[in-house]
Amino acid sequence: MKTLLKNAREKKGLKTREVAQLLGIDQALISKFENGSRKPTKEQITKLASILEIDFETLMVIWLKERILYEIGDDDLALKAISLAEEQIKYNVSFVRKSISKNLQNLLNEIDVLKKKLDTFREFDSFRIAQALELEYTFESNRIEGNTLTLRETDLVINEGLTISGKSMREHLEAINHVEAIAYIKQLMERNFPFNERELLSVHNLILRGIIPEDAGRYRRVQVMIKGSSHMPPQPFIVPKEMEDYFIWYSENKGKLHPVILAAEMHERLVTIHPFIDGNGRTSRLVMNLILLQNGYVIANIKGDYDSRMSYYQALETAQTSGKKEDFLLFIAQIEKECLERYLGIISK
C-alpha cells in the first residue's frame, strides 16, 4: 500500500503537505503512511482514495489485508482462524444485504457517490455555511414539534439575543437549547468521543434545560402516550432495560451497517422507546445526526412543513406498529441525499 499511495500522490503532482492539509492531519503522518511505519485509519483510507483518485475497493482490500496480517501474523492457527472468520463475514454480509431492499440499496449507492464527492471539497467547508445550515436545522426540528418561531425569528433569538413579542419563553428556550445541543454533538464528533448513555443524557439535558429542569437528562418515571399515534411506549420501569438493550444493539451494529441505516435505526429505536417525558423527537434526531457527522456525512434536516411532517410521522408509525422499517429508512436516506446535494451545490461554487 505504501508504494501505491506514494505513486498516486506523485502522479497527481501533490506534495505531502498538500495531502495532509486535505486530510486535516500532520504532514509527518503522510510520510509514515508512505514508508509503511504507520497505518491509516479506515476513515483516512476513504479520504485518501478520493483525494488521490485510487480505486476505493482496491485500496480498502489492501488495507484490510495488511491489518489482518498485522493482527494474526504467521501463527500456525492463523489459516484456520481466517477460514472461520471468512464464514462469519459471508453470513453477516448476506444477512445485511437480504435485509435491505433494492430501492434502498440504490439510494445508499447514490449517497455514497455524493459522499465521495463531498470529501474532495472538504477544504471549502465554511463556518458561516455550517452556521446557516445549523440554524435551519434548529428551526425545522423545533417546527416539527410545534414551535411557531419563524426562521428569521429563530435567527434573531439565537444570534441577536432578542425576545420576540407574542412568542412564549419556552419557544425561545427551545431555539437556544437546540443550538447548544448541536454544538455539543459536534464536540463529541470532533473529539472522537464514543456515543453512550452519559452523552445521550447530556444531549437531552441541553434540550430541556430551563424548560422542564427536573426531567432534563433523566428517564421518565411515568407512562406516556404519543399524541396522534397508536404506538404505546413501554412502561417507565422497563425503560432502563430498554435503553441498556439500545446501547448493546448500537455496539454490535455500528461496524456492520451502512452509516445512514445505522443513524436512521438509532433514531427510530430511541423515539420508539420514548425514554423521556419530553424532547424525544429532538433528541432522537440529534443522535441520528451525531452518527451521520461522525461518519463524514451532513446533517439530515427533516422539514417541519405539514406534508414533510406527515410523511415523517407516517413512516415512523409504520415502523413502530408493524416492525416494517423500510419506509422510514427510505425516508431518512432520501433526506440525507437531498441534504448532501444541497451542501455540495453550496460549497462547490
- State the helicity in percent bands: 55-70%
Determine the mean pLDDT: 90
Which regions contain 5 or more consecutive residues with pLDDT less than 50? none
CA distance, first residue to last residue: 34 Å
User: What's the CATH H-level homologous superfamily of the largest domain?
Assistant: Fido-like domain
Number of strands: 0
Number of helices: 16
Q: Name the CATH architecture of the largest domain.
A: Orthogonal Bundle
Helices and strands, in order, run as HHHHHHHHHHHHHHHH
Can you walk through the features of this model?
The chain has 349 residues and is mainly alpha-helical. The protein has two domains: 2-98, lambda repressor-like DNA-binding domains (434 Repressor (Amino-terminal Domain), Orthogonal Bundle), CATH 1.10.260.40; 120-347, Fido-like domain (Fic-like fold), CATH 1.10.3290.10. Helix content is 68%, strand content 0%. The protein is built from 16 helices and no strands. It is globular. It starts with a helix and ends with a helix.
Topology:
Layout: H1 2-12, H2 16-23, H3 27-35, H4 42-51, H5 56-72, H6 78-98, H7 102-119, H8 127-144, H9 151-159, H10 169-190, H11 197-208, H12 239-253, H13 259-273, H14 280-294, H15 306-322, H16 326-347
Binding site for ATP: 278-285, 312-313
GO molecular function, one term: ATP binding
Domain Fido: 195-334
